[in-house]
């Protein structure tokens, strides 16, 4: 019997339900069956955030979260990171963008 990679302690259906809930929360419920190449840069960033949250982590380390995005997508990603902060997550952002680096990401 071939075992599949899994998140410790979480069976497949629970993992799938958790993934769908996170994607819905990040505005990607209509993109569940898409491949990465079919997603915009902003959508790919949101998938990265969902992956970071999948195991219930409380710390998000975002390395240049807006670096490859247009200004609208950058604003969306920063809004999501602020929401996560407001929900009690620790969000650490590494960036060269002065708008993102401003206190609280005030530029976005």
UniProtKB/TrEMBL annotation:
Coiled coil: none
Domain ABC transporter intervals: 13-66
Pfam family, one: ABC_tran
GO molecular function, one term: ATP binding
Keyword Transport: no
GO (cellular component) term, any one: plasma membrane
Top class in the EC scheme: hydrolase
Record keywords, A-Z: Hydrolase
The protein's name: ABC transporter
Organism of provenance: Salmonella enterica subsp. arizonae
């Amino acid at each position: 019997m071939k075992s599949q990679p899994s998140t410790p302690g979480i069976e497949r259906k629970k993992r799938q339900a958790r993934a769908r809930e996170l994607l819905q929360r990040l505005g990607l419920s209509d993109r569940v069956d898409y491949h990465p190449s079919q997603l915009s840069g902003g959508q790919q960033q949101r998938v990265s955030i969902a992956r970071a949250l999948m195991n219930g982590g409380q710390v998000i380390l975002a390395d240049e979260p807006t670096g490859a995005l247009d200004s609208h997508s950058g604003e969306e990603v920063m809004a999501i990171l602020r929401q996560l902060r407001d929900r009690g997550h620790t969000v650490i952002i590494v960036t060269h963008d002065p708008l993102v680096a401003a206190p609280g990401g005030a530029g976005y």
